[in-house]
Amino acid sequence: CFAGDGCFLMTGQELSTAVRYGLGLIVIVANNGMYGTIRMHQERAYPGRVHATDL
After folding, report:
1. Distance between CA atoms of 16 and 42, rounded to whole angstroms?
2. By residue range, what is the domain housing residue 11?
3. Could you tell me if residue 55 is inside a domain?
4. If we measure between CA atoms, which residue out of 41, 36, 29 comes closest to residue 53?
């Protein structure tokens, strides 16, 4: 699994399901300091007015 830190904050609880099923996962978290997808949508819809996407 490869995820940015913001993505991991929103979906990290899914790891408990993997543990419950005994899956051996390798998780790589990129420290890019933002909610990347939310920021992308804000930049597209509201150029120059990005808000609350930095971690």
Report:
1. 31
2. 2-45
3. no
4. 36
Buried b (16+ CB within 10 A) or exposed e, 36-53: beebeebeeeeeeeeeeb
55 by Cβ neighbours in 10 Å (0-12 / 13-18 / 19+) ranks as: exposed
Distance set, CA 21 to CA 10, 18, 37 (Å):
21, 5, 29
Task: Read off the pTM.
Answer: 0.62
Other beta carbons within 10 Å of 35: 20
Whether 30 is in a domain gets the answer yes
What's the pLDDT band for 44 if we cut at 50, 70, 90? very high
Say how many C-beta atoms besides its own lie within 10 A of residue 6's C-beta. Answer: 21
